[in-house]
Amino acid sequence: MAKTITKKKPTTRRTRSTRPTTKSKPARARSTVRTYKSALAFLNEHTNYEKMVRVGYNHTNFNLSRMNRLLAALKNPHRDLNFIHVAGTKGKGSTCHMIAAMLQNCGFKVGLYTSPHFLDLRERIRVNETEISESVFAKLIARIEPAVRKLRNESPTFFEIMTAAAFLHFADKQVDYAVLETGLGGRLDSTNVVRPLVCGITNISYDHMAQLGNTLEAIAEEKAGIFKPGVPVVSTPQAPGVRRVLKAQAQKVGCDLFFVGDDLEYSSRFERSRAAGPHTRVCMTTKHSRFDHVQVPLLGEHQADNCGVALGVIDALRAAGHEIPEQTAIEGLANVRVRGRLEIIREQPRTLVDGAHNAASINALMHAIGQNVSYDSMVVIFGCSLDKDIPGMLREVQRGADKIIFTRTGTARSADPNELMARFNELSPKMAMVAPELDAAYRLATTCVSRDDLICITGSVHLVGLAMRELAAPETVPV
């Protein structure tokens, strides 16, 4: 607990020949941010690596010292918060939502910071699942702006400012726990300035190779950069090379590492029932907790692994003495709603969106659709970023698609749809078409489907966000 220091009021010296004088205070730096619109304008003045095609992954661009100086100028709002820090290639967001839902159901006030967003920037910062309001967000950015201006030549990035805003909001709201998803990697990510209660590691696969490395082991080293001395880590099952890297880093740092399924007894089973439909149930037993026949709230067997990490995190908190009732926690999973994951946005024609954006997540998506969605044939509208493992993603898409339409994602990072089709034609004889933009792609898709067919839009979070904005029916829910 930080000490409270009470400063004495300065006294004013008096002399016989002079009247009392007071020193004039320097004028406080005033913010130009007044509204939500001006807050967005200020943010967009700063480097946003999410929109850039080529990003140098180095200490100049990703600088924890700069982030620490920004937070120091804001009086370190993160210092007294209880963090849960989650890294990994896929499943981070879903895992964070599950952890937050379980804690919230136990009566705690829970902050949640995730990225990227689908429709609105404010999706990234939530307290008890309520997005930060436009007015509160604008006030936070107004508080941050003078601190940013003071840093002058080392101006913080878009993501660093967003992370600082999340910390301020969570401190203002006096949350009991704050659940953080890393943005890129882990070691140099701006969220990595915190000392968490526990860390979670979700599936590590190929993504952002230009920044994180071309091997799973190199990527794992970056993710393991969030490990801290004495802070327990819960990981999903991993490939052998990834396991070795995580174990070595845990030993080097001095923290306990628990693999779901090995160190934490765990099982999962896919089943169907008239009441619950297709779903997965998991069980976990540890020294401190027993989670029996837990229904995973999100569809897809890959979500069972994410649920395993979330339950392992809750177990680690219980082991540390946090009063979290097992049954109350798992009942909270029923409240989990994560947009952009196997989400039906329109019924006629039936249209599904999913933010899968690497080969492993496309594989999981196609498998999940096959298990959980009834259809005769499927048309996939696909767009992705230039820096992705395009051949790997196309191989996975063609396994599930009957027809595919390539389009742009709506960002400068978009791969050219004509090049995507050329690559696809080398892999598969299936029908492929090109449309310049999403609306044209969707119109084309509707001419290719009948009543019992499915349209799936995937490959990019940005493309899915565009679809949710432009195509969604007024009332949409996950599958």
Describe this structure as you would to a colleague.
With 479 residues, this protein is α/β, with parallel strands linked by helices. It has 2 domains: 36-335, UDP-N-acetylmuramoyl-L-alanine:D-glutamate ligase; 343-478, Protein-Tyrosine Phosphatase, Chain A (Alpha-Beta Complex). Helices cover 36% and strands 17% of the residues. It starts with 35 loop residues before the first helix and ends with a strand. Residues 1-27 have low confidence and may be disordered.
Give the key terms:
8-stranded mixed β-sheet, Protein-Tyrosine Phosphatase, Chain A, alpha/beta, 7-stranded mixed β-sheet, 17% strand, disordered N terminus, 36% helix, 15 helices, UDP-N-acetylmuramoyl-L-alanine:D-glutamate ligase, 2 domains, 479 residues
Uncertain runs are 1-27
Specify the structural class: alpha/beta
CATH superfamily of the largest domain: Mur-like, catalytic domain
Helical content (DSSP H or I, runs of 4+) = 25-40%
Count of DSSP strands: 18
Distance linking N and C termini: 45 Å
> What is the helix tally?
15
Rg computed from alpha carbons, rounded to a whole number of angstroms: 24 Å
Oligomer: single chain
CATH classification class of the largest domain: Alpha Beta
What count of structural domains? Answer: 2
CATH architectural arrangement of the largest domain: 3-Layer(aba) Sandwich
CATH-assigned fold name of the largest domain? UDP-N-acetylmuramoyl-L-alanine:D-glutamate ligase
Shape: globular
Characterize the largest beta sheet: strand count, sense, and whether it forms a barrel.
8 strands, mixed
| Strand portion | 15-25%
Global mean pLDDT:
89
